[in-house]
Amino acid sequence: MADFLPMTDTPRDLETSPPQRRSLLDLHRDELVSWLAEQGQPKFRAAQILRWVYQQRAMSFGEMTDLPAKLRQRMSEDFDLFTADVEIEQVSHDGTEKLLLRLRDGGEIECVLLRDGPRRSICVSSQVGCAMGCVFCASGLDGVKRNLTRGEIMEQMLRLQRRLPADERLSHIVMMGMGEPLANLDNVLATLDIARDADGLGISPRRITISTVGLPPAIDRLARHGVPYNLAVSLHAPNDELRNRLVPVNVKVGIDKILTAADRYFSISGRRLTYEYVLLGGVNDSMQQAHELVRLLRGRSALLNVIPYNPVAGLPYKTPSTGAITQFREALEQGGVNVQFRTRKGSDIDAACGQLRRNRGMLDESQLPLA
Ligand code: SAH
Question: What positions does the domain Radical SAM core occupy (predicted)?
């Protein structure tokens, strides 16, 4: 074997790798200010930099032309503005755009821009993968890898913002991408602080929705945080027996405790609750289940958002027939539930969470789960 070794072997420790720069988006404002002070720069430079990042949509430090050239140079040596690579971009016929981002450590996440009338909504991921194990969802099939950092959550928002023409602004944020936002609550809340800040993205908390599988202690923490975000709870079943099967984390929690925590959130925040219900043909769409759902939600100040299932390749679940959907809807309406049936957007581009990552190996259009 030794014959095949090169004459001069390079020892491993001499191999050079580029220094790992810090992510600018991970920095708190005061950390940026102290870094600037170290460079002998005044405090007001921080405001200039943030304006370039959040309002003027800079893609690089070089574009920040009202900063001294030397400072721009130092910034590009010490920081990365964006740390992920856009691996795949998809644009749907209805204007929905989806990005698959590859993170520094190779993890992959997805985020989506939805255009609906004047609305420009974004759907953002909070974790690489997901630990909740919902049996019909593509995001959690391989479990959770890790929480996203503040910078990685914000990068999704900024990359989608930069896809809008200069005269359009992001109007709504939903934390409904990959992962369970309440399992990464600190980083989600810190990112949303910037999203709603006038010097950040300036989006009102009333236009920001956090979607959760239903983790009562974290719902209570969110209530104590005191910012009136909309809360959406993914219910998907009207009783524990079925929910334990569809949403395995339910075994440890139970619908009762979730509804009670959500009610507490409503009484503190004053924001109407949304319950999400993914309609799975032959699984949770029967008349009996509709009536059970009516008994559960009647009298609660909540909106039931029924979402027809977006099929995931390799999973056995199906979208119900149009007839079954209509029947289910009528039963809920007659029962007095405030119900909304969501129309699917971006279904020609794998817009349901986790689908693009899962299907990337077979991006031949004929194999996409067309609705
Ligand atoms: N973990 C959070 C947020 C991410 S999922 C939660 O559970 O709410 C956002 C919503 O999309 C959830 O209601 C989830 O159940 C739903 N969902 C997941 N896969 C879907 C699919 N293939 N079709 C339709 N909805 C799906």
Answer: 116-348
Judge whether 353 counts as a catalytic residue: yes
What pLDDT sits at residue 8? 44
The pLDDT score that the predictor gives to residue 10 is 45
Distance 176 CA to ligand 1 centre (A): 7
Annotated catalytic residue, options 97, 108, 110, 155: 110
| E-state strands within the chain | 22-23, 79-80, 85-91, 97-102, 108-116, 119-123, 127-129, 144-147, 172-175, 208-212, 230-234, 273-279, 302-308, 339-341
Mark whether 97 is an active-site residue: no
Considering only CA atoms, give the Rg of the chain: 23
**Residue 365 confidence (pLDDT):** 30
Q: Where in the chain is the domain with CATH 1.10.150.530?
A: 22-80
Report residue 101: phi and psi, to 5°. -105, 140
User: Ligand 1 centroid to 41 CA: how many Å?
Assistant: 46
pLDDT by residue (tens digit) across 295-306?
999 989 899 999
pTM over 0.85: yes
CATH 3.10.28.10 at 22-80, yes or no: no
Q: Which ranges in the chain are annotated with CATH 3.20.20.70?
A: 85-341
pLDDT tens digits along 25-60: 999 999 999 999 999 999 999 999 999 999 999 999
Q: Is the CB of 279 under 6 A from ligand 1?
A: no
Residues recorded for the chain? 371
Which fold, 85-341? TIM Barrel (3.20.20)
339 lines ligand 1 (CB under 6 A): no
Looking from the CA of residue 138, the nearest atom of ligand 1 is: 19
Distances 124 to 77, 143, 240, 312, 323 between C-alpha atoms, Å: 29, 18, 29, 19, 32
